[in-house]
UniProtKB/TrEMBL annotation, chain A:
Keywords: Membrane, Transmembrane, Transmembrane helix. This is ABC-2 family transporter protein. The chain crosses the membrane at residues 12-32, 52-74, 100-124, 144-161, 173-189, 195-215. Signal peptide: none annotated.
From TrEMBL, chain B:
SMART domains: AAA (SM00382). InterPro entries: AAA+_ATPase, ABC_transporter-like_ATP-bd, ABC_Transporter_VariousFunc, P-loop_NTPase. Residues 297-316 are annotated as: Disordered. This is ABC transporter ATP-binding protein YtrB. It comes from Kolteria novifilia.
Length: 221, 316
């Protein structure tokens, strides 16, 4: 039954994911001097800096990933509230928390895949001799991987915002605002893995617990 | 007899509005129970509380002997719930939604699914978003009955369906009923349908369950008495069971829930020139019982309410 749920969620998120991935790849194509698709000229031309250095790649990636996180999270939570399909889903013989956490898991997986592919592609290009005149080591991609690991916090905040039965848009947006603030702070502070990862894990945990509780307690229909 | 559904003081507030008020309902296994009421009477909210989709403000509910608040997946697999409007993932095809739903159940009557699909002439390749309301209801019914549930809860399943589709749907439902020991709770606006299939009815008025009795009992208990006078219509005296009264010219219509010697004496005391007992089907009975003081909003202004006593208790 989990497989059926995962396939359903993948089918429902593939539209957003495909668009985001296409735009990310177009960005990477631009950063690589349009070596992949010469005719695609919608995004930055090749930037003559060291690949992954100075946060340029992450900055471009964030233009795609942050809107994806917000749209995907909110859409996944509200789609079935709007059309009443939660009434169908929640009557299946499966714990409501399992169903919601599966949704969340698929959403996070989509977020990770959509970012991992361009990071790997750009990294592979940067690691290939003759492509650019600057040194490269895979450890230089650490900032991009960190961005990938922490950005689902914004997704989870958007999901919680969609699920939360707030009466006023200001209070409904609180989880998204808190997640965005937290994500911003995490990405800005100096590289302290020993501190970032446990704090992020706690934040993820709090969001997951809150999402699970709200999904169990709110009214549907 | 074992109870399939039991509620105790089930109450729901939306803000300060009490939508369902201290509902106490007991439905035996094997009963076909119709929950009736006008729009906004609290039927859908009651059904959503029974299925755990809405949390009660107070009170509790049990399905198949288990508290709804902690209903185990195994118990839920023995219960079918068809929500109002038959919400299903619209991007799926009929075949996909069947495969998706089947993944959740250990018991799944594949042959029944195939035969009902064939009966309704539904193609597995048809996309749900392209189906009519009637066909969506048919798909919902298939998904509901395939796991061979012991209890079916249907929230206005024939809402918006045309007469033919409704009849077909109901006949399928009757076939399910004929299987041993199945309990069905359904809400409906179509009283003709209820009369055909329900053993017992409950009527909700403004969130309160006013009637809970066998269908025939209700039809027999609610009486419409039309009195004709050769003078102005007199004041209607206090009388137990009097649900409503309206007068048009020299005619007075009285609706009683339970008509016995006490009510007969009250009618006689008015000294009419003619007393007529009007035969009513379930629809008429329901309308007369529930129309309440709103009937005074007549288009022609020829009818005036006479103390309709909306708080009068029901026929049960």
């Amino acid at each position: 039954m989990i497989r059926a749920l995962v396939l359903k969620e993948l089918r429902e998120t593939i539209g957003f994911a495909s668009i985001a991935l296409a735009v990310s790849l177009a960005i990477v194509n631009g950063l690589m001097g349009r070596t992949l698709l010469p005719s695609i000229d919608v995004l930055p031309q090749r930037i003559h800096v060291v690949p992954f250095a100075g946060g340029v790649f992450v900055a471009y990636l964030s233009y795609v990933v942050i809107p994806l996180a917000i749209a995907l999270g909110y859409r996944q939570a509200t789609r079935e509230l709007g059309n009443g399909v939660y009434l169908f889903l929640f009557h299946r013989p499966i714990a409501r928390s399992t169903l919601i956490l599966t949704k969340l898991g698929v959403g996070i997986a989509v977020m990770l895949v959509v970012q991992a592919i361009p990071i790997l592609l750009f990294g592979w290009w940067a690691a290939t001799p003759g492509n650019h005149p600057s040194p490269f080591e895979w450890s230089m991609t650490r900032g991009a991987w960190q961005f990938m690991l922490f950005s689902p916090i914004v997704y989870a905040g958007a999901f919680l915002t969609g699920l939360r039965p707030g009466r006023w848009i200001g209070t409904r947006l609180l989880p998204l605002a808190a997640s965005g603030l937290y994500f911003g702070v995490v990405m800005m502070v100096p590289d302290q893995w020993w501190l970032r990862i446990p704090v992020a894990a706690v934040f993820y945990g709090l969001l997951a617990v809150d999402i699970r509780a709200i999904a169990s307690e709110r009214d549907y229909g | 007899m074992t109870l399939a559904i039991r509620t105790e003081s089930l109450t729901k507030y939306y803000g300060s509005t009490k939508v369902v008020d201290s509902l106490g309902l007991s439905i035996d296994e094997g009963t076909v129970y119709a929950l009736l009421g006008r729009n906004g009477a609290g039927k859908s909210t009651t059904i959503k509380m029974l299925t755990g989709m809405v949390r009660p403000s107070y009170g509790r509910a049990e399905l198949l002997g288990e508290d709804v608040a902690t209903l185990a997946p195994e118990t839920r697999s023995r219960i079918a719930y068809l929500a109002e409007g038959h919400p299903l993932p619209s991007w799926m095809s009929v075949g996909e939604v069947i495969r998706f739903t089947r993944a959740f159940y250990e018991d799944w009557d594949h042959d029944l699914v195939e035969s009902v699909l064939d009966h309704f002439a539904l193609s597995k390749r048809a996309k749900l978003r392209r189906l009519s309301k009637g066909q969506l209801a048919q798909v919902s019914l298939i998904l509901g009955i395939a796991p061979d549930p012991e209890l079916l809860i249907l929230d206005d399943p024939t809402l918006g369906l045309d007469t033919n589709v409704r009849r077909d749907f109901l006949e399928s439902m009757i076939q399910i009923i004929q299987r041993r020991g199945r309990t069905i709770l359904f809400s409906s606006h179509v009283l003709g349908d209820v009369e055909r299939v329900a053993d017992r009815i409950g009527i909700m008025l403004d969130g309160v369950l006013r009637v809970d009795c066998p269908t025939e009992h209700f039809k027999e208990a609610v009486r419409k008495i039309v009195l004709t006078f050769d003078r102005d219509v007199p004041e209607v005296p206090e009388c137990p069971g009097l649900v409503g009264s309206w007068h048009v010219g020299h005619r007075l219509e009285l609706i009683f829930a339970g008509y016995g010697s006490e009510q007969e004496a009250a009618v006689a005391s008015l000294d009419p020139v003619e007393v007529e007992r009007v035969e009513m089907n379930l629809e008429d009975t329901f309308i007369e019982y529930t129309r309440g003081p709103r009937r005074s909003l007549s288009f022609f202004g020829t009818e005036e309410p006479d103390d309709p006593r909306p708080g009068a208790q029901g026929a049960a």
